[in-house]
Write a structure and sequence with these properties.
By secondary structure, the chain is mostly beta strands. The chain has helices spanning about 50-60, 100-105, 115-125; strands at about 1-10, 15-20, 25-30, 35-40, 45-50, 65, 70, 75-85, 90, 135-140, 160-170, 170-180, 195-200. The strands form three sheets. A six-stranded antiparallel sheet has the order 1-13-3-11-8-7. The longest helix is centred in the middle third of the chain and has 9 residues, at about 115-125. The radius of gyration is 16 Å and the shape is globular. The relative contact order is 0.36. Pfam families: DUF1989.
């Protein structure tokens, strides 16, 4: 494999890159227990984007892991999870925002930076705005579903150095927010850096 890109994403910061068809993106949880929010777009047509609904329906599972195909609304494949040290990643809890922080944790959190703001800032580089944001994937985030349908956000099941690898099926724009959340245990209340490595054969 040839390394195309190898970058460190600081705690709380956004990241983006176009991953070309056939290339692989490895996301490495350097310190463990760090949630990484992610959106995917067709690099040539941003209206074709990751659909949580199409992905969940096609695989009949609300969690993603090795073998999961991340699909657009028309069912076409954007990326495939080809390796995964953790085995359980969230598709339904969504991205934190300043508004949701205020609602969940109180008005004193209104000033705190959040994933939606990261997505908007990074997406603007590609002409994307608020209407282009959809339900995202939360890599490494542990969101169990109780028998009564209640969702929890609990301590992660990742660990230092664990990773997952995605293969691009088409040229795919990947937007990431290295989650800044400090009000719930998705990051162990202490956001940390992650590493993004793109390779090709």
């Amino acid at each position: 494999m040839v390394t195309v890109s190898d970058e460190l994403v600081p705690a709380r910061e956004p990241w983006s890159k176009v991953v070309r068809a056939g290339e692989r993106l490895q996301i490495i949880d350097l310190h463990g227990n760090q949630a990484v929010d992610c959106l995917l777009y067709d690099a040539t047509d941003h209206t074709r984007r990751y659909s949580a609904q199409a992905t969940v329906a096609a695989q009949r599972n609300i969690f993603v892991g090795t073998g999961s195909v991340l699909r657009a609304a028309d069912g076409s494949a954007l990326m495939t999870v080809v390796a995964d040290d953790v085995g359980n990643h969230d598709t339904i809890a969504g991205a934190c925002s300043q508004e949701s922080n205020t609602l969940r944790y109180g008005h004193h959190t209104a000033h705190q930076h959040a994933c939606v703001e990261n997505f908007l800032a990074e997406g603007a580089r590609y002409g994307l705005g608020k209407r282009d944001l959809v339900s995202n994937i939360n890599w490494f985030m542990n969101v169990p579903v109780e028998p009564d349908g209640t969702l929890g956000i609990v301590d992660g099941i990742s660990a230092p150095g664990k990773s997952l690898t995605l293969r691009a099926e088409i040229d795919t724009l990947v937007l990431v927010s290295n989650c800044p959340q400090i009000n719930n245990p998705c990051n162990g209340f202490d956001p940390t850096p992650v590493r993004m490595v793109i390779t090709r054969e």
